[in-house]
Amino acid sequence: MIEVRWHGRGGQGAFTAARLLGQAVAIHEHKYVQAFPSFGPERRGAPVLAFTRIDDKKITDRSEVETCDYVVVLDDTLYGDNVTKGLKDGGILVINTTQDAAAFPKKGDYTVITIDATALALDILGRPITNVPMLAALVAAAGTVNSDSVLKAIDDQLAPRIREKNKALFTAAYDKVKGEL
């Protein structure tokens, strides 16, 4: 089973990213998926968690993801021990930041990938919504999901007026991370 934990703030789209990943895998790659949020006080800007599980067989565990293969951080101000806790050795931590990966001290045997998803989103969408470029960074770094499946999920899930810009944003972030690996 592959498990992903998403750290974001209310309004950044962490749950939408978890859901898009789930849609891409379930519908377009025919695997079993769970995608669900965990909210504290539901207000814009409050820390939120979202989770995605992927497996070839039915998933019966409904608990929050504690031990995970991948962690995605949509806002680098959330970085701390709670972010890296439970990240498996050999896992990947993807952080939206202007800083280099070396700025995030490692507490285990995992890879840190950084991307300025905010700048990409501002450039392409005109808004600092980082869920799609962070999903792209994860897909590029992890290689567990086909990027075409995610582009199809964007068509399936996002409103028609924002689909093309989000697909362009996904492709730009995906290409950026792939080019740096």
TrEMBL record:
Q: What is the lineage of its organism?
A: Bacteria, Bacillati, Bacillota, Negativicutes, Veillonellales
Instruction: Provide this UniProt record's keywords sorted from A to Z.
Output: Oxidoreductase
A single Pfam family it belongs to is POR
* Sequence ranges assigned to domain Pyruvate/ketoisovalerate oxidoreductase catalytic in this UniProt record: 10-175
* Domain of life of the native organism: Bacteria
What is the protein's species of origin?
Megasphaera hominis
| Presence of the UniProt keyword Translocase in the record | no
Query: What protein name is recorded for this chain?
Result: 2-oxoacid:acceptor oxidoreductase family protein
List, alphabetically, the Gene3D superfamilies matched. Answer: Pyruvate-ferredoxin oxidoreductase, PFOR, domain III
Q: Do you know which InterPro entries this protein is assigned to?
A: Oxidoreductase_gamma_subunit (IPR051626), PorC_KorC (IPR011894), Pyrv/ketoisovalerate_OxRed_cat (IPR019752), Pyrv_flavodox_OxRed_cen (IPR002869)
